[in-house]
Amino acid sequence: MKNLPYLSAFLITVILAINVYTSGFTESVDRIMIRATAKMSLLLFLIAFCANALHYFINKKWTSALLKNRRYIGLSFAVSHTFHLLFILLLQFYFDAQNFEERGVATVLGGAVAYLFLYLMAITSTNQMISSIGIKNWKRLHVLGSYYIVLVFAISYIPRAMSDSNYLPFAIFIIIALILRMTRFIFLRLEAENRGK
User: How many other C-beta atoms are found inside a 10 Å radius of the C-beta of residue 14?
Assistant: First the structure.
């Protein structure tokens, strides 16, 4: 799966090329790409976010493969979400759609912090960087960053799912992901306590 980040970039480029070929590069196409990259990013993130928990509860070859390649899945999320950001910036500055004003300051700042975590996590996703900052600091960064990002996704998708059924599957995926992570954490704590007795 080492080529997965490149595959993600290629897939987004193909989707963009098809839309531009059929409709031209319009604001409508840009908004389509914003929605497409948002959903692609969410799915990639949730796979990486849940890989450990899935393998813990379902010890199969496919969950082992997900866990082994979690780094590349995470980097693919970074690629997809970078495209997402570029399309948002195009909407704001090229199409002058006043997207930032529509979203509000809190939403924009919350998203900016999520991107900061995203890029810090991507930059530190090499063995060399893990050795440089230390495994404990690496774990702190990635746990804090991943929970912050999933919170941003939850705030974005769960309220919308209440009024728009198109968002419902993604809201359910987020809830399941959080339940899996928290349940694994509880089970690991119980196992540690039992070993300590």
Answer: 10
- Distance between first and last Cα of the chain: 41
State how many domains the chain has. Answer: 1
Q: Structure tokens of 179? A: 């339940």
pLDDT above 90: percentage of residues in the chain: 84
Provide the pLDDT confidence category of residue 100 given band limits of 50, 70 and 90. Answer: low
Q: Tokens for 141?
A: 């960064």
Position 184: which residue type?
R
| 8 A C-beta contact, residue 34 and residue 19 | no
Residue 83: predicted pLDDT: 97
Residue span of the structural domain in which 94 resides: 4-196
Q: What is the pLDDT of residue 98?
A: 67
The CATH number of the domain where 141 resides is what? Answer: 1.20.120
Q: Using one digit for the tens of pLDDT, what is the confidence trace for 149-195?
A: 999 999 999 999 999 999 999 999 999 999 999 999 999 999 888 88
Using the Cα atoms of residue 58, residue 64, residue 68 and residue 72 in order, give the sign of their dihedral: negative
Q: CB neighbours (10 Å) of residue 177?
A: 21
Averaged pLDDT, 47-55: 96
Under 8 Å between Cβ of 68 and 60: no
